[in-house]
Each structure stands twice: as C-alpha cells, then as structure tokens.
Amino acid sequence: MVRVILKRIGLAFLTLFGVTVIVFALLQMMPGEPIDSIVPLDASEELRQVIIDQYGFDQPLYMQYFMWLGNAVRGNFGNSVSDNRLVLSVVSEALHNTLILALGASVFAFLLSILIGVYSSYRPNSIFSWIGTVFGIGGISIPNYCLSLILIGIFSVTLRLLPSTGMYTSGDYTFSSLIQHLILPAIAAGAMTLGIMTRMVRSSVSEMRSRSLVTTLRAKGLSEPAIMRHVLRNSFPTLLTVAGLQFGYLMGGSTMVETTFSWPGIGLIIYQSIFTSDFPVTQAAILIVAAIFVSINLLIDLLRIVADPRLRK
C-alpha cells in the first residue's frame, strides 16, 4: 500500500514539473521579447534593466527557468502589469471567489445527480427516469455560456428574480446578497457536472444492482434500504473519481460562466490578463490552477486506495 501511495505522489510531482515547463514556455512563445510582456511600454531604461536582472533575461534559457521556478515555489510571481499589485494577491483573491462558485455548483450538481441517478436506476420506466435522461443529455450537450445567457434572459431580464452580474449588490455585502448572485452562475457552471454525474450514478448503481451480490443480500432477507446502502458503498470508488475530476474542473475556473456573469474568479482573471497582456498574472493563475487540479486528483487517488482494498495491491 505504501508503495502504491508513493507511486501516486511521484506521478503527481512529475505532472506538476511538466506543467511548470509548459507555463514557462508560454512566455517564450509570446511575440517579441519576453520582457515586453512584463515591462510597461513607457518604462524607463533603468526600470527595464532592473527587471532584466530580477527575471534573469540576460541568462541562458535553462537558468531563467530555474530562477522562475525557484520564485514560483516561494510564491513570488512578481507584480501585475495592469495595477502593480502583487500577482499572488490578485490570484489568491480570485481563487477564493472561484472556490465559492465551485462549492455552490458542486452542491447543486452532486446532490441532485445522486437523487436523480439513484431513483431512475430503481425506477427505470418512470417519468422521473425520463427527466433524469433529459438532465443528463442536456447538461452535457448545452455549452455553459449558452446556458448562462438563457438563465439571464429568463430569471434576470424577464422575471427579474435574480441578479445577472457581480458577486454582491453594490453596498450590500451580506450572505443573502452573495447567495442571490451565486444561484445562476452555480447552475450554469454545474450543469455539465450534473449531466455527467447523473449518467454515471445511474449506470453505476444499475450495474451494481444487477450483480449476484444484491441477489444474495435479498436472499438473506435484507430490506431494500439496507441493500441500497451496500450498492452505494460499492459504487462509491467510481463515483468518487468522477466527482473529484469534476470538482477539479470547477476549481479550474469556468471561464465563460465567470465572464458572462462578471464573477471575479480565476477564470475571469485569466481571461482579462490575456487580453491586457498581463502575463505574470496569466502564468501564476494557470500554474496555481494546475497545481490544485493535480492535488485534488492525488487526494482522490489516495481516498480510492483507502476505500477499495483491491487498489492497495
């Protein structure tokens, strides 16, 4: 078991190393000199020289990479070109907002998918099962930015029930204001996760119920709720993997959803930093998002090893 865990951790670090190489290479692939993506156009020659020394642009490429990696490990990504704030401060604030959106979307998607998936697997010919199929196909098929516009058109423009932009109402920074602004983005961001999880829960539970294990449990006289607990427990490792991947996807920032709703998350920050050529923010945001995604997948792998004895071998 220890060997398997160490192997998973080693693969995670290897993946992160590859990500750092790709993120660093992005700066080198920009048109012109890399320093032009960091230094303002009206900067003095003295400031340019200071930044050249700071980032090591006069050093060989491999030395620049290791200098950048060393700074990144210490959390030093420099200052934002747009507003001269610390890059880590900008990204941390956006990441906090994305975490709120990801949690809201996860609660919506995971709870509803378990309810629909389990019920439709037990009642495959019911109207509820048909509704579950529609949710599953629709959630996967409709792009989240299209769904965002549909939700805004219905609930914000036509019915005027919910706000369409921002994270809070101006001057009202209460929890109720946050929830009102969170509902539509959470539904739009979690729709694809809902579709994937609904189909996965239904197929996993249906496949588990067709096994001889359930027949044996019924022969022993167990009640249907007790059998359901056994079915869900045996389906848990598979569902855990899918749920972890989907939460990592949501934490990566639903860029189009955050842009449409002006939600100040990591996706919106990446979008804005690309269009303003604020490359230090772009690099830091992509690297931190990738690190979070890899970390979540590593955690899910370790939880699966604990939950499923077969994987310990």
Please describe what this structure looks like.
- The radius of gyration is 24 Å and the shape is flat.
- It is mostly helical and 313 residues long.
- It contains twelve helices and no strands.
- The chain has helices at 2-28, 45-55, 61-73, 87-122, 127-141, 144-158, 175-209, 212-219, 224-251, 255-260, 266-275, 279-307.
- Helix 9 (224-251) runs antiparallel to helix 12.
- The protein has a single domain (90-311), classed as MetI-like fold.
- The mean pLDDT is 82.
**Low-confidence parts lasting 5 or more residues at pLDDT below 50?**
none
Instruction: List the secondary-structure elements in sequence, H or E.
Output: HHHHHHHHHHHH
The total domain count is 1
Provide the structure class.
mainly alpha
Contiguous helical run count: 12
Q: How far is the N terminus from the C terminus?
A: 7 Å
| Percentage of residues in DSSP E strands | under 5%
Please provide the count of β strands.
0
Mean pLDDT value = 82
The named CATH superfamily: MetI-like
Radius of gyration: 24 Å
Largest sheet: none
CATH class: Mainly Alpha
Helical content (DSSP H or I, runs of 4+): over 70%
Shape: flat
Second rung of CATH, namely the architecture: Orthogonal Bundle
CATH topology: MetI-like fold
